[in-house]
Write a structure and sequence with these properties.
single chain; 2 domains; 6-stranded parallel β-sheet; 9 helices; binds nicotinamide-adenine-dinucleotide; transcription regulation; transferase; transcription; NAD-dependent protein deacylase
């Protein structure tokens, strides 16, 4: 049995209790660079630029980096074959949720309905004083033109992109629903994550501890490879498209078998 057939069969057998856990590698085929891959962002800028302390020390610099390296890339991106295949598998009733570390909204744009965003979303801003949330579009053009750091229209404090910076906690509701889904899942499929950013990376560990099968689709090694049923070193888009086709074939042939028995 090929790798894609093995995953397709395991997905069908999990009867809807399957989770996808995605990282930046799920979006590199959409032209959004990951952090730690060979073309990753860390090759061009240091991780410290996304520290919350730096944001408050030098908000203008931090907004400039965000506008240049994050917003401009992500706002141009479209879903790739990995996002599309995951959404198709969900529409067939095989995926309970997509838990993502990505902030790029590409799962939703591909049609996934149940997406848990652990690190926020690139297209919103938030005020850490009064809780205001708004569309980043209403603020970022002004910043790019006039270099004036966005301020909260309600209380005047500096606004921050609604993404989790290093040193900030993850959103508690999202984290706890991800943990509880992980505890009851039968299968978790990691796509494009180095599994090195915690607490997000706890999610596949929790699923494993509660008896789920683990599949990893990642171009480079992770510390959980040894625990996986299968590790696939192909591009996520290429592989997941094959999985989605294999699932459709298997479902079609089992329907035909059922019909011929009636
Ligand atoms: P990471 O950069 O640490 O790891 C990405 C992994 O994906 C690497 O191991 C790389 O080898 C692999 N990879 C790259 N392209 C691939 C492909 N086409 N197919 C299969 N594997 C591929 O990213 P991470 O684990 O998600 O780290 C978490 C952090 O990344 C989070 O803080 C997240 O918010 C952030 N992030 C998000 C985006 C985005 O929204 N698209 C972009 C960059 C970083």
């Amino acid at each position: 049995m090929s790798a894609e057939e093995k995953l397709a069969k395991t997905l069908i057998d999990a009867g809807g209790k399957a989770l996808f856990f995605t990282g930046a590698g799920a979006s590199t085929e959409s032209g959004v660079p990951d952090f730690r891959g060979p073309q990753g962002l860390w090759k061009r800028i240091p991780p410290e630029v996304f520290d919350i302390d730096l944001f408050y020390r030098d908000p203008e610099y931090s907004w400039r980096i965000y506008a240049e390296y994050v917003y401009s890339q992500i706002s141009r991106a479209s879903p790739n074959r990995a996002h599309i295949a995951i959404a198709e598998l969900e529409s067939l009733g095989l995926v309970e949720a997509v838990i993502t570390q990505n902030i790029d909204k590409l799962h939703q744009k591909a049609g996934s309905k149940k997406v848990i965003e652990l690190h926020g979303t690139y297209d919103k801003v938030q005020c850490l004083r009064c809780g205001f949330h708004g569309d980043i579009k209403d603020f970022i053009e002004d910043f790019i033109r006039e270099k004036r750091v966005p301020r909260c229209p309600k209380c005047g404090r500096i606004l921050k992109p609604a993404v989790v910076y290093f040193g900030e906690p993850l959103p508690s509701e999202e984290l706890s629903s991800a943990f509880s889904l992980a505890k009851s899942s039968k299968l978790i499929i990691v796509v494009g994550s180095s599994l090195s950013v915690y607490p997000a990376a706890l999610i596949p560990e929790i699923a494993l501890d509660h008896g789920a099968k683990l599949f990893i689709i990642n171009e480079s090694p992770t510390h959980l490879d040894k625990d996986a049923e299968l590790v696939v070193r192909e591009k996520a888009g290429t592989f997941l498209e094959k999985v989605s086709n294999a699932v459709e074939e298997m479902m079609k042939s089992s329907k035909q078998k059922d019909e011929s028995l009636q």
